[in-house]
Amino acid sequence: MPAPMRHNPIACTKIPGQYRENRRKSEIFRNGGWTPWSSWAQCSTSCGIGFQVRQRTCSNPAPRFGGRVCVGQSREERFCNENSPCPVPIFWSSWGSWSKCSADCGGGVHSRQRNCENGNSCPGCAQEFRICNSEACPEVRRNTPWTPWMTVNITQGGARQEQRFRYTCRAQLSDPHELQFGRKKTETRFCPNDGSAACETDSLVDDLMRSGKTPARVISGGWTPWGMWSTCSRDCELGFRSRRRTCSNPEPRNGGQPCMGSAMDFQDCNPQPCPGEEPPHLRDAPENSHDFGCFLYNVPCRKGLKGVVLSI
Question: Any idea what DSSP says for residue 24?
């Protein structure tokens, strides 16, 4: 009996029928299988709701020779940072309208505002100010009537000094009823007692009055040094002369005290009789005195009459 033949793969492949059989065995179909899921990717947002994904592939194994493909999704998504809300953005709202100017003229202020949304830490200011109506106001003046003439000083010779006053207010204001500053105007005149000449009117003198509303440093007035004596009003028979000073060293301001005393000083002069004439105080004089209305001017009794010499 002959020995059995051993299987020879090479020889077998040379046989057409056997080759086809071996090929079919090596090409058996294979169904696909999923790989494990990858890790979840980073969330799409750092705060607030986002999403993240993970993936897998149908390669464990891959389908071959007509095998079934993997069933299911190769990509999964899910929400993330659901409990990590983003900070609310803080920002300024738009500026509002400008408010009404605080003054109609002379420079006022108005403002506008904005709000810090979603907080109170916005950089910058919530209110803005701006100068408005800076054009000068029309000047407003008001004068009081003059007071009657009032005697303020009399010399021994009888000449008198009279003054009258009026008050002037002047300011640049939108409302004329809000005048705050005033000046006192003083007019002075000098009247010889004998009526030999008309009263001589001096120039006006302004004294600043007390301030109304505006706070400022209070300055009290001070007298300037006395000026030179004027020429005597008469060459003989007792005239008078005067000298002046002003309350401007400094001027009283903002409610400061005015200067105390008179701005004029008078002095008798040239009391000697005129050549060839009797002294005026003996001419047609009463027995013992002359009354000039405000001061009693006493003179000696005439020679040969009894009486008392009274002091001035």
Answer: H
Residues in the chain: 312
User: Beta-carbon neighbour count of residue 242 at 10 Å?
Assistant: 21
CB within 8 A of 2, min separation 6: which ones?
none
Q: Is residue 140 classed as helix, strand or coil in its secondary structure?
A: strand
Domains belonging to the chain, first-starting first, are: 139-280 (2.20.100.10), 281-312 (no CATH)
DSSP 154-194: E-TTS-EEEEEEEEEEEEE-SSGGG---EEEEEEEEEE-TT
Joined together, the tokens standing for residue 42 give: 């980073």
Q: Tell me, what amino acid is at 223? A: W
- Residues lower than pLDDT 50 in the chain: 1-14, 19, 181, 207-215, 285-312
Classify burial at 124, counting beta carbons within 10 Å of its beta carbon; exposed 0-12, middle 13-18, buried 19 or more: exposed
The pTM assigned to this predicted structure is 0.29
Token output for 50:
């986002």
Q: How many CB atoms lie within 10 A of CB 39?
A: 9
C-alpha to C-alpha distance for 232 and 137, rounded to whole angstroms = 50
Asked if residue 61 has a cis previous peptide bond (ω within 30° of 0), the answer is: yes
- Tens-place pLDDT, residues 145-161: 888 888 777 665 667 77
Give dist(CA 204, CA 164) in Å, integer: 10
Rounded alpha-carbon distances, angstroms, from residue 190 to 52, 65, 200, 206, 241: 109, 142, 5, 18, 11
